[in-house]
Amino acid sequence: MTRRFVALLVVFILGGALGGCAHIPKPKELLDLASLRESKEYPAAQEKQPDLVRQSDDSYFKSVESWRDKEIEDSKYWATLGTIKLRTALSMVKEEAVRQRAEAARKELAELKKREKELKRQLLEADEQLALHAKLEAARKAAEEKEAQLKAKLSEAQRREEEQKRLAEAQTKVSEAALALKQADTVEAAKYAPNEYGVAQALVARAEAALKDGKISDAVATADMARSRAEAALAAARPQYVAARKVAERQARNQALQKDAAAIGGVTVRMKAVGETQQLIMPVPDLFKRAETAPRADKKALLNEIGALVKKYAEYPVIVNGYTSNRVRPSQQYSVSQARAQEVANHFVSLGIEFKRMATAGRGSENPIAGKASPLNDRVEIILLFQ
Amino acid sequence: MTLRLVLMAMVMFLAAPAWAEEPADLEQTITDLNSQAGDKERIDTQGATKVELSQIRGWLTNATNSVKENAAKVARKFFDLVRVQMKLVDQLISLSQIDAEVARLERDVAKTKERIATMTTQLEEKRVQLRALKLREGGK
């Protein structure tokens, strides 16, 4: 047992001593280089940088040899040298790859820039087109707005024109109503149709006020009503007015007639009312000699003067009554007086007086104006009838 | 024999600069390399080589110490490492720059794509708008 233990101890010590000499560990630098030579990029470095790799290989082998020779510092030196060269070679290979990437990136970038430029151009074009559309749109909108403004202006002008037209129409209506009222005044409607006239007058005033206040519709409606009432007043008043006027005219004419008749010398005019009829009686005494029927020659001027009066008042009916005195035999008195009346009427016809205006009558010795035998009774009485 | 002597003399003459390198020259080399490292740091705006430049500074310190210990051979080994590392730094700076450029380009690409998508949508909307306007105008 002891021998065996001793033997083992000897073997161990010898082995350890021998092992320590034979297996000096490789320096780290050598291990690093060996590891670097195992890298996957190494073949590429061999291919692309053969000189550097060969130099590195040489250094490696020298390092290994130095290590085997136990020249550790030399081994480290060569390993470091080899590592640097191999790293340089690997870096160069890597640089080449990177340069290729750079070149590819440059190319791609150039293509992309080209594409970008083209896109910019297209965008610019699209922008220009859009701007053009925007301008067009703006122009269209401006035109529409202008058109709308013009329409509004036109509409406003039309409205104003319409208003002016309505105003003018209203003024015309009010004027027409006022005129109608004035026309009614011409027939004295205030007197003969006071109710209608009063209403018309009030309505005209109201229409004028409405017109002044700019209430055109009111003015038009009121003016129409006023005109209608004024026309009604005119219509209602006219007959009465006309009648009154006629009466007045007639009276004036009658007065003129009386005045004219009174102006005739040698005739004593007298008036006599018979019912509603007035008689202007102009006796011409001593017109005939005894039983004659022809007027005395010296009285013809007087007859002519009376005839002129009768002719002047042409619308008055005329009665010529013939008379005699008692100097004419009673049996002949009516015939003589009739002939005398007829004779005077004929004379008047010869003066241009219409025969149909005249009526003749023989009154014999009736209504003597003096003693029955007085020649004054040989006369005619010319009677003008009027109302 | 003469030829061998001549050849030996030539070899010695050619090797002379290395052998004859004085501590001052080595220190100058260290100064130069430090200056170069400083240049690299300034160039490396991305900070992609901080570790490598730190290693360079370390190796130059080691080289300085070696010069002080009169271990010129060791110092030269550090110089070798520094010089090779300088190339690696250059390479890594170059890589970082091109990486940055690629990143920028890819960002540009992505942004441009976004813009294009937006513009395409806008364009489509405007075209729809235009079609609608034309239809409306046609109806008027």
Tell me the layout of helices and strands:
The complex is a heterodimer of chains A (387) and B (140).
Chain A: H1 2-22, H2 28-37, H3 42-48, H4 50-68, H5 72-186, H6 189-192, H7 194-212, H8 216-262, E1 270-274, E2 277-284, H9 300-312, E3 318-322, H10 330-350, E4 358-362, E5 380-386
Parallel strand pairs in A: 3-4
Antiparallel strand pairs in A: 1-2, 2-5, 3-5
Helix pairs in contact in A: 2-5, 3-4, 3-5, 4-5, 5-7, 5-8, 7-8
Chain B: H1 2-19, H2 23-43, H3 50-68, H4 72-139
Helix pairs in contact in B: 2-3, 2-4, 3-4
Walk me through the structure:
By secondary structure, chain A is an alpha+beta fold. Chain A has 10 helices and 5 strands, in the order ααααααααββαβαββ. Chain A has helices at 2-22, 28-37, 42-48, 50-68, 72-186, 189-192, 194-212, 216-262, 300-312, 330-350; strands at 270-274, 277-284, 318-322, 358-362, 380-386. The longest helix of chain A is centred in the middle third of the chain and has 115 residues, at 72-186. With 140 residues, chain B is an all-alpha fold. Helices cover 90% and strands 0% of the residues of chain B. Chain B is built from 4 helices and no strands. In chain B, helix 2 runs antiparallel to helix 3 and helix 3 runs antiparallel to helix 4 (72-139). The chains are: A alpha+beta (387), B mainly alpha (140). The interface between A and B is medium-sized, with 34 and 33 residues.
